[in-house]
Amino acid sequence: MREINIYNLQLMDFELFLNVAKYESFTKAGERMFMTQSRVSKRISIMEDELGLRLFIRNKRKVVLTPAGRILARRLRNISDDILNAIQEAHVAQTGMSGQLKLGFLEWGTIVFMDKLEEFRKNNPQISIDICRSNFSELRNQLFFSRMDIIFSTSYDSCQLSENEYLFIPLKEVSLVAYMSPKNPLSHRESLTINDLRSEPLLMVDRNSSSGYGEYIHGLFLKHNIHPLISRYAHDGGAHIGNLLLNTGILLASEVFLADSWQTQISRVPIQDETVTILAVCKKQNNNPALSKLLETFGYNKTG
Known about the structure:
The structure is a single chain. The chain has 10 helices and 10 strands. By secondary structure, it is of the alpha/beta class. It folds into 3 domains: 11-93, Arc Repressor Mutant, subunit A (Orthogonal Bundle); 96-172 and 279-297, Periplasmic binding protein-like II (D-Maltodextrin-Binding Protein, domain 2), CATH 3.40.190; 174-276, Periplasmic binding protein-like II (D-Maltodextrin-Binding Protein, domain 2, 3-Layer(aba) Sandwich), CATH 3.40.190.10. Helix 1 packs across helix 2 (26-33), helix 1 packs across helix 3 (37-51) and helix 1 (11-23) packs across helix 4. Pfam families: HTH_1, LysR_substrate.
C-alpha cells in the first residue's frame, strides 16, 4: 500500500473537497468558501497528489466524484462536522458570542473582500455566514428590509442610499475601465479619455436595475460637453457579455468587473483619471454583534 502523507494538507482542504463534491463545481465551492476557482483547483490537485487518489472526474460542465472520491466523501462528512462543531463550541466558550451574517455582493464582489472575509471566517468559525450574489436593485431591497446585514457595491450605485440611515465603508479605489471587443480599434490603446468615446456606442445598465449607474455615466460625459451614444440596455453588466463579444458597443465598469474571465475575448482599456470606489454598505441601526465583528476586520469600529 502506498504511504499516505497528509502533512501538506489543511483542515480547510477536506472541507473544500466536501464542498466540491456537494456542488459538483470548483466555482460554486469557491464561492461558498470565498476562494477563486483557480485556487480551488490547485488545492484539490495538491490533495489528490498527497493522498495518491483521483478524487474527481473533470469535464466542461461539472466535476464528478470517482468511486474513491465517493468513499472518502462519505467517511469525511461526519468527521468534518464533528471537528467544526468542536471548534465552534470552543470559540463560543472563549468569546461568549456566536451568530449569523447575511452578505450580498455583485458578480465582481469576491475579488475585493475575499481576503478579509477569509480572515474573519478563520478567526470566527462560530459565526455562520450566508452569502448570495445578485444585482444591485435586489441587494438594495434585501438591505432595506433587513434580510441582508451588509452588501458590497460601488459608489455610483450606493449614492441612492441615505447617509442618515446607512453606513458606507470604502474598501478599495479601482480604475474605471472600457470593456470592448478586440475588434474595436480602441482596444489597442493603453488608455482612453471620455472624449475618445464621443462617437462610440455604449452598453448601459437600465434604470430599474441601477439608476445610479446611468447618472454616473451621463455625468462623466456631460463634464466634457458630450451626449453619450447609447446602443443597448440590460439589467446588469454581465448581461452585456454577448454584446461585447459581438462588438455591439463599449461597456464602462470598474476594473474588477470581469476579474480574470474572458481575458482573450474581451479587451480592457482604463479610462484616464477616472476611478470607482468599492464600498461595504450596512444599516446604521443594525445591532447584529456579528456584523460589528466583521466591520472590525475591515478596520471600522461601528461603536466608535
